[in-house]
Predict the 3D structure of the following.
Amino acid sequence: MSGGAYLSIQDLSVSYGNIKAVKNISFDVMEGEIVTLIGANGAGKSSTLRAISGMLPYSGQIMYKGTSLAKIPADKIVGMGIAQVPEGRGIFGSLTVLENLKLATWQRKDKAEVARDYERVFAIFPRLEERKVQLGGTLSGGEQQMLAVGRALMSRGQMVLLDEPSMGLSPVLVREIFRVIKEINASGTTVLLVEQNANMALRTAQRGYVLETGTIVFSGTGDELLHDTRVREAYLGG
Amino acid sequence: MIMDNTPSSTSTPVSKGHALLERWKMRWDRIANNRKIFPIVLAVGFILSILVPKFGLVNEYVQLVIIYIGINIILTTSLNLINGYMGEFSVGHAGFMAVGAYVSAIFTTKLLPENLEAIYFPLVVLAGGIGAALIGLLVSVPSFKTRGDYLAIVTLAFNMIVKSVIENIEVIGGPRGIPGIAKLTTLPWTFFWTVLAILVIRNFVYSNYGRGVQAIREDEIASDLMGVNTNRVKLLAFTLSSFFAGVAGALFAHVLQFISPKVFDIIKSTDVLIMVYLGGIGSITGSILGATVYTVLLEVLRPFGMWRMVLMPLMLVLLMIFRPRGIMGLREFRWLIPGFDLYALKYWRAKKEVSHGTPAS
């Protein structure tokens, strides 16, 4: 792997009161990779992502490009290049598609670059350009997901954290979303993907980690996990 | 933000009444969409505001009502920023108004020599606004740690604190208030401050920060994840809102000519809330209409005496049932929207005509 660990997580624990949602997990994401965290409901996948984005207090260490993310507020973390696509998309329903995208550039001062990024997002999602003055809330589920990914790209995410992008989408759209994930990865974006759709996630990702009740139980390359009998039994339906 | 007016359905049989309705709708659209109207309204309004008192075109009473409408527009627009655009629930607007009123009244009755009052009046109003803004900043730090219902309670408590603090400071009259304030609020000044409030808040709402404000209303977590500094956005919006509440308070003090803590109690805050929800949340046009309609209605209903307080709430109940989003909820006269969105709308219209009837898949 070239470039070394982009995101390095050591002994991460996240608690909600007395309940420990994530228990001392450690993993790395290298530059240019797609890494997936898979697991059932309540395994701690989303909590891990939220901790990385600075939305949850945690113990342990999260390093991004060699800097610790502890005590950095959420909006600054976005400024550093980590963009999260939240679970349930978080589209601003009464703002237009264009305004939704514009919001993601909230911190950016480089007007010319922003203009180029619009072009890039519209090249990846022609559908969004067609609908750019439509209200976010009137988009279909798939379009909203595209918009959510588009926003992450607009905030200049060198690393995109995707929280269940396939949720609530038809099989065709799921394939479409995963195709786009590969595409943005190919253009140089590192991706950390949280999924329940283990099959698609493992096919797309280079490496994967399987979470179970807050701990990592298996890890390996996408192919390895896809063919591992224990993983197959638990997550891929035998 | 774009008006999401439903496309006129061509499938239904066009009756005579329907055609008439359509024509009126078109006329209304023309008024609502014509950009040229904005400068015309400003110019005509300003000239009228000078001419009317000078030549006594309408009687004193009507002039007074117009001044109250202006003050109420400032109050409503500024509260709409918090309750409408940001989607929070602040119920202590009269508290900020009181700060503005008292700061300005202290200036004109105690500090400034009598012959200079009129000249310094704009500065006095500004001072009232700044005083309220500072208090607003102070209040917003602890109160925005809470949300929704809790914020309502915090601002309610603030309103009560302001009232009792003023009641207990003897220098400013305590519960007796400050009598004998000069009548400095004139029609042109009211017009000036009203237009300023509308323009500043409009520009704020359609700025980058304003988009942040609306994003907080939609989904605060998502806005954090988009890199919006939600704390700063909230502080700024709250400070701006209290600034204009203070300005309104200052104007109010110098038209009523007498202020006491009782004037700025919860009832006054409720009045502003009613105007916001009557006009429609998240709409500046709505705030203007809401404040105007409410103020005028209260005056029109005055002959009914006691019944006024029965009829008015009844109307509100009906409004909430038949038009829960208020008169203009989340919509806007387009001439109030700055350029970018206007372009977007034109684009959208063109699009809609091409692909008429194809719903979003």
